[in-house]
Design brief:
By secondary structure, the protein is of the alpha/beta class. The chain has one domain. The chain is built from 8 helices and 10 strands.
């Protein structure tokens, strides 16, 4: 249900996302990054090029990314300028951008600190991202960024649609980097199998909080059985786990 998910987020738009979806033939491996903020490192560290010349057997690589973050802050770099990030070794740019149908969901003050969000909250964008790396060369990825609560997005869209999300990234969520959420993201462990996740990347930070319990109360389908996982390697984002079927 990967392609169906993207068509749903596209709605009735006839823009660059629909053109992309109508044209692709290869299987979609979607990487999902809740509480992503402006962290575009996964596009580097989960790429073929990063693992060359000796990729890990069994490893699959994402070719589409879905980010979410309700974004309570006043500034959003990638909405204000084509250049998201630049230093001496790496440059991240937005090549193209399209506004998709909004997700006008209310924020829950038991799960997030800032109930009213920002001008970005509720928007859904399709972006074409280009990364120029001194080490890895040029990489390009399609990305949908939904400025919504992570729990809502999973409970209301991903799980009901029986989506297949090959990679799930838990790095900023529980590590104290997001700044706007009360939950730790521990609920992600409960949905890995139902989302057909194959690769789980985590920093291992799951500090119990009232936000997690509030998420379970409001979104019952986030409860579930934690899967068996096998650690395969460490990368700069965290530890990669294979999720056993």
């Amino acid at each position: 249900m990967s392609k169906e998910l993207l068509y749903r987020l596209n709605g009735n738009k006839n823009g660059i996302l629909k053109e992309y979806l109508d044209s692709i033939k290869e299987p979609l491996n979607i990487a999902r990054y809740p509480s992503a903020g402006e962290d575009f490192r996964p596009m580097l560290y989960l790429s073929h090029k990063y693992f060359e010349p000796a990729p890990i057997p069994e490893t699959i690589f994402p070719n589409f990314f879905i980010y979410s973050d309700y974004f309570p802050w006043t500034g959003t770099t990638f909405l204000d300028t084509p250049t998201i990030y630049e230093d001496r070794k790496t440059k991240v740019e937005v090549l193209d951008i399209e506004e998709l149908p909004r997700l006008n969901w209310r924020l829950d003050s038991d799960i997030v600190y800032f109930r009213h969000g920002s001008v970005a909250t509720g928007r859904v964008l399709f972006l074409k991202i280009k990364i120029t790396s001194m080490q890895l060369g040029e990489l390009q990825y399609p990305l949908i960024y939904a400025f919504v609560e992570n729990e809502q997005f999973c409970s209301k869209i991903l799980l009901p649609m029986n989506c297949s999300i090959s990679h799930i990234i838990h790095v900023r969520y529980g590590g104290g980097l997001g700044g706007g959420g009360i939950a730790s993201g521990a609920w992600l462990l409960n949905v890995l199998k139902r989302l057909n996740c194959k690769v789980y990347i985590t920093d291992g930070e799951y500090t119990p909080s009232s936000g997690d319990e509030a998420a379970y109360i409001k979104y019952e389908n986030l409860r579930g059985e934690k899967p068996e996982m096998k650690a395969i390697c460490k990368i700069r984002l965290g530890t990669i786990f294979f999720v056993k079927a």
